Amino acid sequence: MPLLKVSMWAGITKEHKAELAKALTDTMIQVAKVPAQAVTIQIEELPKENWATGGVLHTELFPPK
Prior knowledge:
The chain is about 35% helix and about 30% strand.
């Protein structure tokens, strides 16, 4: 059944991951008409320095505040 893969910058809290997983699962239930038990979500956290857009690293595009 559905496997949703989410890649994001490292540092999201466990609570935010749980909130994201619940929201994505609820959306799959509503749109794809599958049971919650069928939805698997894989969250991959990567350092900001491993991302680039337009040839510029995200550490430069999105510096710490």
